[in-house]
Amino acid sequence: MAKSALITVAMVVLFFVGQPVAKVAIVGGALLLKAKKVYEEIDGPLLLMFAGLFVVVASVEHNVLTPEVIANVERLHLENTAMLSAITAVLSNLVSNVPAVLALKPFVAPLADSKRAWLVIAMASTLAGNFTLLGSVANLIVAQRAVAEGIDVDFWSYFRIGAPLTIATIVSGVLLL
């Protein structure tokens, strides 16, 4: 506990003196982790699947998102919070929420209020991850761990709870933003 407290205090100090957040977080996390235990817990197939999602999204970004496609998508009025939320939610459930955010990047830059658009995307992609079991890699990790404990979380049992919850929370987010 003393080690954790010391590293936490050091990280906070480094944040306030202007050190890059990512660098401080990585170094702090590395100091707290026990490497052998971490490597034993790595789920190779899941990690490979997640990396594959990023490869697919990068490929789509470079080969499919042509200027014409981007212009056509811009006609969907992405400055509208409800429309951007809906598109983000659908995309998040097709390719998972993190790759979806990366795929939306070219569509945010031309918007008049890109800061607001990023807030909408953050809200919708995070909440959309709850729609289906495949909506977020975190869901897959939990389902896989549940199976190891003898609990079966299948697509439809998850969907019966996740879908209405996701719709309600995204509608609330649209109304609040």
How many independent structural domains? 2
Q: State the end-to-end CA separation.
A: 40 Å
Tertiary shape: globular
* Rg calculated over all Cα atoms: 19 Å
Low-confidence stretches: none
Q: Find the structural class using helix and strand composition.
A: mainly alpha
Mean pLDDT: 87
Q: What proportion of the residues is helical, as a percent range?
A: over 70%
Measured by DSSP, the beta-strand proportion falls in: under 5%
Order of secondary-structure elements = HHHHHHHHHH
Largest sheet at a glance? none
Count of alpha/pi helices: 10
Question: What would you note in describing this structure?
Answer:
- This protein has 177 residues and is an all-alpha fold.
- It has two domains: 1-41, no CATH class; 43-176, no CATH class.
- Helix content is 78%, strand content 0%.
- It is built from ten helices and no strands.
Task: Give the SSE map.
Layout (H helix, E strand, L loop, with lengths): L1 H15 L4 H12 L2 H7 L2 H20 L3 H8 L6 H15 L1 H12 L5 H15 L8 H12 L6 H22 L1
Helix pairs in contact: 1-2, 4-7, 6-7, 6-8, 7-8, 8-10
